[in-house]
Amino acid sequence: MKLKVFFAAALLCVVHTTLAETVLRYTDHEPLGNMRTKLINDVFFKAIEQESQSRIRVEAHWNGELSVSYDALKTIGEGQKADIGIVVPEYTPEQLPRFQIFKSFPLGPDNGEKQVQFFHNVFATIPQFSAELAANNLVNLQFFLGYPAAFFSTTPSLKYDDLKNTTWRTASFWHQSYLENAGAKVVKMPWNEKITEALREGKLNGLFVNLDSGDDIKAWQAAKNIGVSQRLWLGHVYLLVMNKALWESLTPQDKAAIQRAAARTEKILGSTLDTRLTDMVSNMNTHGADAHYLTPRELESWQSISHYQAVQADWITQQQAKGITNIAEVLDAVQAQLKAVE
């Protein structure tokens, strides 16, 4: 009789443990293997499991298995297919207008640690960003960094403040304006390896894109002259968000565990970016590229010719016409945080 009671109690304990485990379905549009995805999988997810004492487990789905990048905000907000995942603000400018501000600054912090400090301070002190996510039923758990932008050019000794008679491809509407202000013609092309062919054939003279994306399509095989700088920071932040209703249903202990895991992860974001950037530049040069770090004078000339403040002012007017409130104040607050880490 005592033996039966023992086994019954043991079974009840196992069932209780199983029921108590929270499994979070994660969606990511990129495959596992690059800097960001490895940090998320190998550091953040493991830290969540450790900090929660295995009460929380992440079931990761990569490479758009659950949702493509442009649908991620909606997918996670609905919470039917995924509970957490990566949202890229640039892909949903109508839903996240204030997040578009980051890329409007041509130059940013000069190393990864400063970038981390900048985004940490912004999200801690400017409530409009969390409110914008909340309006889409989302809560940000942790931000992740992207590589800085780079000038991939077929022309040696390129002058970044004089791009007349050259044709460029870039994705960001901000960068399109800045290249045009420098005299370039900007064309739209689907993102694939045909861009490298266009560079090789002379249909494109340059590509302004984050360094790793240019590396992915081996743009340096055709555009060997690559201007690189951490200060060309791109402002491309990845948000690892959770469905807000689910977040609110978690126990205080589980919320605290996730927050501790995020804090542990954030500590290594900056140094990881710096190391991987150096390695990528070195690898490109090993394979025949001429990737070089831009001088302060070159960076300042790019910022000057961009006329970014005039472009920002026009954009603010457009957003205000759409009924977006406090947009100018948010931009000023972001600029103040940038200056604080310079």
* Contiguous uncertain segments of 5+ residues: 5-19
Read across the widest sheet, the strand sequence of neighbours is 7-6-8-5-9-11
Got a strand count?
A: 11
CATH topology-level fold name of the largest domain: D-Maltodextrin-Binding Protein, domain 2
What oligomerization state is this entry in?
A: single chain
Please report the number of helical segments. Answer: 13
Looking at the overall shape, the CATH architecture of the largest domain is: 3-Layer(aba) Sandwich
What is the straight-line distance between the termini? 73 Å
So what's the CATH class of the largest domain? Alpha Beta
Helices and strands, in N-to-C order? HEHEHEHHEEEHEHEHEEHHEHHH
Shape: globular
**Structural class, from helix and strand content?**
alpha/beta
Biggest sheet descriptor: 6 strands, mixed
At the fourth level of CATH, the homologous superfamily of the largest domain is Bacterial extracellular solute-binding protein, family 7
The percent range for helix content is: 40-55%
Number of domains: 2
% residues in beta strands: 15-25%
Radius of gyration: 22 Å
Mean pLDDT score? 94
Description:
The protein is α/β, with parallel strands linked by helices. It folds into 2 domains: 2-87 and 96-101 and 110-146 and 236-277, Bacterial extracellular solute-binding protein, family 7 (D-Maltodextrin-Binding Protein, domain 2), CATH 3.40.190; 149-233 and 290-341, D-Maltodextrin-Binding Protein, domain 2, CATH 3.40.190.170. The protein is 49% helix and 16% strand. The chain has 13 helices and 11 strands. Strands 7-6-8-5-9-11 form a 6-stranded mixed beta sheet, with helices on both faces. The radius of gyration is 22 Å and the shape is globular. The termini are far apart. Mean pLDDT is 94; it is low at 5-19.
